[in-house]
Amino acid sequence: MKIKSIVLLVFLSSLFTTQIAKNESPSFFFNENNSNNNDTLNNLKIISQWSWGACNSIQIYDEYAFIANGCLIQIFNISSPSSPVLIGEIANEDQVSLLTQFSHYLVSYYPFKIFDISNINNIEVVYLNKSIYAVQKIFVDSNFLYLGDFGGGIKILNIEDPQNPIELGHIKCSGEQVTGIAVYNSILFATTADGLTLDIFNIQNKNEPELINNYYLGGIGGDLFVYNNNLFVGKSTFSNFNIYKIETSEKL
Fold it and tell me: Cα(110)–Cα(200) distance, rounded to whole angstroms?
């Protein structure tokens, strides 16, 4: 279905705008020096810590945490968060930089692998593809996996059968090094590390994604997140993020 138009409206409160103009922290943002914060936020405290190696990525499944630590994927039982227990490690042939999870599967990179983690005592690799490389961002939406790469491309995979992902269409963003991917109905939003725009695509036909618009952000785009019909856009310059309300002229 052809999309007639998309309007992105800045959805920021007057309080936010006023305080940003004054270089003040908005009162609804956490700041340890801001006495107006909710007591719960002011009382954040560490209840446990694992101090061995890096934590490049983390995913939670059931009562288990999967942590990317160098060439290992470490598995913790977190049923008691104050006393996490290391119960296993998966050795990898290279540095694990990205993890994501869907259903009872764990996706890791590099190389691109899909694990069946339904049986924590018998985790199996159900798919391996070493020809997928330079991945910067992994995003899952329903039965589709989106892989953003260093060159500014996004591969779309159908993962309805995780043992046999099917590559569908390919998206070319306006910049390089994909930093953010988010999906709202049949719209895909993307940002890149060297671009000043939010790239917007129609992905109703995932074999042939269509560029709708390049929305000027005024800063290099960071990560993205969609909640309800609001789009949260991080920016790595100017140290801020915007919240947009997504409106379409017809139902997608």
Answer: 27
